[in-house]
Structures are given as C-alpha cells and as structure tokens.
Amino acid sequence: MSVVTNTTTITSVGAPSRRNTELALLLFAVLIPVFAYANVGLATTDELPSGMLGYGLGLAALAGVAHLTVRKFAPYADPLLLPLVTLLNGMGLVFIWRLDQSPRLHQRAEALFGSFSPDTPKQLLYSAVGVALFVAVLVFLKDHRILQRYTYISMVVALILLILPMFFPAVNGAKIWISIPGVGTIQPGEFAKIIIAVFFSGYLMVKRDALALASRRFMGLYLPRGRDLGPILVIWGLSILILVFETDLGTSLLFFGLFVVMLYVATERTSWIVFGLLMSAVGAVGVATFEPHVQERVDAWLDPFAAFKDGTSDQVAQALMSFGSGGILGTGLGQGNSDLIGFAANSDFILATVGEELGLAGLMAFLLVYGLIVERGVRTALAARDPFGKLLAIGLSGAFALQVFVVAGGVMGLIPLTGMTMPFVAAGGSSVIANWALVGILLRISDTARRPAPAPTSPDAEPTQVVRVQ
Amino acid sequence: MSELTLTVMRLGFLAVLWLFVIVAVQVIRSDLFGTRVTQRAAGRREAQTRPPQQRQQAAQAAQGRQQQNNNNRARRGAPTKLVVSEGSLAGTTVALQGQTITLGRAHDSTIVLDDDYASSRHARIYPDRDGNWIVEDLGSTNGTFMDRNRLTTPTPIPLGAPIRIGKTVIELRK
C-alpha cells in the first residue's frame, strides 16, 4: 500500500517592523539630492555650491524628524513610502535651485516683476510645513477610521474648497488659486483631493452593495439602474462646472477620475469605467468647443509647434524640445536649456528639466519612483482589513497616480496641458504640503494594516492544519 | 570642470538614481507578508526514504516552533505524534504541538475522515492542563471506541491505545 502524507501548516506571517530598512533607505534618499546639488554646482560654477551644507542638512533634518515620528507613532508602517517621498522632495529642491541659478530666468523675472526672488528657500520652508503636517497626522490621527465619522462634513468642506477659487480672479487663465492677504496664494484643489477621497470612501462603503448588485446584464456589461447613476452624474456635473468656471482641466479630470476609480474598486463592475470614460470624453469635448482657455490648451496640444510659431503658447513646444535635447542619457545636471520654457519652468514644467538634464533614463527612474509610491499605496489597500481603510488607501494613491499622469501627460504632449503640479518635485507650497499629509494618512493606514495580530490566547487559536491525503 | 569629469558625474548620478530604485524594489521583494504555507513532505519518494519523525522535526524547526517542541520533549514519555494506523488515511501522522485536533467529515477538521461511519464533527483530541492528551466524543452517531469500550466522557489516551472511529484507527506515539 503506497502511503503518502502531505501535511501543510498554514500560519499567518506578520510583516516585520522594517524601521531600520527605512532608515538606511532614507540615508540613501538624502545623499542622492546632495550629490545632485554638488553636480549642478560643479557644472555651472566649477565649484561646490555654498548652500550645499545648508540644504543637505535641512533635508536630512526633515527626513530625520519624519523617520523618528514614524518610529514612535507608526512602527509597522510601510518602509518604502518615506524614503521615496524624501528622494522626490530633495530632487525637487535641487531642480528648483538649479533653475534659480539660470541667468535667463533672472532676466525674465526682472523684466516682468522688477526683481528676482529665488524659489528654493520658499520650497524648503514649504517642505518643512509639509513634514510638520505629516507629523501632526501621525501623532493625532490614531486610527484612520475616525475619518469615517466625517464623511458628509468632508463632502461639504471639499465642495467649498473646490468652489471657492471661482470667486477669485483668474491667474494665467485658470481659477484654481485663492489668495489670502498676508499669507499668499493657496491652491485649495490639492487639499480638496485628500478630503474628497475621505468622502468617497465613506460614501461608497455604505452604498457599494446597492451600486454593485442592483444591475442588469447587457452585452457582457452590468448596467446600473437609472437611479443608481445619480452619484456619478452629480460628480460629473460638478467636474463640468469646475471645467467651465475655473477653466482647469486638471482639477476636473482628477476629481471625476478619482470617483470612477473608487467606484470601480468598491463595486468591481467594469461598466463604471466604460461610463466614466464616455462621460469624461463627452464633457471635455463639449466644454472645449465653447471655452476659449480650454480650447487654446487643446490647440496647443494638437499642434504644439503651430502654437509656438503663432506665439500663443510656446510652453509645450519648448518642453518637447527639452526632452528631445536630453535624449537617452541627458545633458547632465545644470547643463540643459530647459530654462527657455520661461513661465512655470520650475513648477508645472519641472519634468522637462528632469527629462533634459537626466535624459530618458533619469525620467524613467523618476516615474518609477512615483509608480512605487502608488504601488505601496495599493499594497496598503490590499493589506488593510477594514473596507473604509481599503477604499481610502486606494483613493489617496489613485489621486496621486492621476495627478502624476495628468501632469506628466500634459508636459509630454500626451493629453492637453493642465494647471496641476508634479507632487513633491514642482515648486508650489500647497502641493508639497498637501502631499506630505496624504503620505501621512497612507502610512497610518499601512501601520494599522501591517500591525501583527495580538498573540492567540485560546488553545483553539493555534495554526490551522490542513491534512491532505492521497 | 573638464568634460570628462562632467560626463562621469552625469552617468554616475544616473547609476546612483537607478541603484536607489533597484534597492527599493528589493525591499518590496523581501517585504512580502500574508500567510506562509509550510509543506511537511514533498512527495512519495521523500516519504519513503525519510523517517516520519525526522521530517516532522525538520518542518517544526522550519516553522520556528522549536520552543514548543522542546517543551514536549522535556516531558519524558509524552506522545509527540498522532498516527492513523488503519482505514483510508492509514499512514498519516500529525505532530502534537499542544493544539486541539478535530476529527470528522467536516472540511475544517484537522483530520478529515472519508468514512461513511464517521460524523461530520466526530471527536476531538486535546491536551489538558497537565499536558495529558484527552479524547472526547462530540456526540457522534456511531461512537468513538477505545479498545472495545464506547467513550461517553473525555478520556485520557494511554500511549499506543487504539482509538477507533468507524473504519479508522488512530493512536498516539512517541
């Protein structure tokens, strides 16, 4: 009689804390920007830049504070998010500083505003505020499920933040800023992104069964009932309103896209994606036919070099030429001519500088770092045990991914240009601060998800044994 | 600054940037978590060449349960495994690690009996506070027998005593 025993034991393996891995990677992530900084200085002025120690120590201090906070308040959180974000923030400082050194931009600023003010110290300050908010999120938000209580409050707050810029004068054609006297201008859309993700997760967690199950099957697609289309129509209408009154494609696309992504994740119905794509195409084409600012952007996207010749919009063409002159390996840090872009070179178009000076190889590394951040966010969503945490993690990483796509796609000429900024890299206070808070919430969810379960107390809680006998 | 130095720095920076990405991906690879499945016996050949006891010890060591294993070893004469000696499962061994073993036709039993005379939750075997192994009939239709006596109360199992459930006979061994 042949006897084969095949006994498997299934035990749950908790993730180890990994804080030391995080520290090592963080050190690496601080050294790379310092190296880049030295690189720019040596290439432009033949000597190590004087501010190198200051910025290096500043970045290291921010990273250290963030790391110690994570060690104390979220010991099981994901080890990769913080180093990746620190690298992007540090490289952003280097690129902004590099563009601050450009004589062309100095001349341009003096001709337009009378004086030139460097953006790097401001950006370092914003990064510090961002890290402070990150620390505050980790210290005060003990459990992400608390946010669930504020589902409808966050809806109201997000709507106010989205509608507010309509009442402020347009800056460069788009109304996405509000200006507070004494503080400066704020881009409320960046903060609304986080708050609306909270609303969507709270709302969809309650409503997802109705949206997923009550449907008819038609040509392989589950068609939702007419009345269940309500929420998506409301969000669509709102995005169209933003597009019409604020003339900003980015914000509009981000909110509608975020809702469709979360709807799909919550209900597992592909039909929502089909509906979403159709509705956004209809909306974008419809608005582009009568709104001159949007139309101008679309024309510049369809034929950037014609717009360059007309003088209507030279940015996209300049960005494409930057990418072209960078080639595969780039011109080297500090040796490109991406400052020719002029307006918004260090904010919306900073990716062109990355592409020119580090080439395709460097740009791909940057996009991979963004991709890894999104991957960690999605992994957090997979590991999270509560539905609200899952949806929130997906929403936050989805918003991050959409923003990267909208900006990178706009700069590279894949989609019409929008007024959003590259998270962490581009100069801009609201963006850096809001994205640090976003990463803080992701780390909080990830800490809850990866925390090992309490030790079993009853004898029945021993590992499950599966005995298979053939 | 010479052209050569700048080129070296340019390529060096790209190399460092990619090194960071690769290290980050390596961290993800070593960061997998979830459930781990430990295969006790790989297959037919291994089952015949290696004595069961040795296999179990290897598996237990791999599971990091050395602690409990040592505790079991510390008491002399305590059984370390449960062996099915007759019936369709004959030859199956289950290491005794202080956990409750359930027997029956239900899929979530520790030992799933494919036996017409067994109930879905037939019996369980568990250690009491002193580490003695106890067998308890869970109200089965056809009964659990030790030697020839039908069990009515939880009963300590002597080493090597045959416990019969339908056509299946199990015993505890050292």
UniProtKB/TrEMBL annotation, chain A:
It comes from the Bacteria. GO terms for biological process: cell division; regulation of cell shape. It is a multi-pass membrane protein. The chain crosses the membrane at residues 23-40, 52-68, 80-99, 124-141, 150-171, 191-206, 227-245, 251-267, 272-290, 349-370, 391-415, 421-443. GO terms for cellular component: cell division site; plasma membrane. Its main location: membrane. GO terms for molecular function: lipid-linked peptidoglycan transporter activity. It is found in: Membrane. Keywords: Cell cycle, Cell division, Cell shape, Membrane, Transmembrane, Transmembrane helix. Pfam families: FTSW_RODA_SPOVE. InterPro entries: FtsW/RodA (IPR001182). This is Cell division protein FtsW, lipid II flippase. It comes from Actinacidiphila glaucinigra. The lineage of its organism: Bacteria, Bacillati, Actinomycetota, Actinomycetes, Kitasatosporales.
UniProtKB/TrEMBL annotation, chain B:
It holds the Pfam family FHA. Keywords: Phosphoprotein. Coiled coil: none annotated. InterPro entries: Cell_Proc_Reg/RNA_Proc (IPR050923), FHA_dom (IPR000253), SMAD_FHA_dom_sf (IPR008984). Residues 101-151 form the FHA domain. Residues 41-78 are annotated as: Disordered. The keyword Electron transport does not apply. Residues 49-72 have a biased composition (Low complexity). This is FHA domain-containing protein.
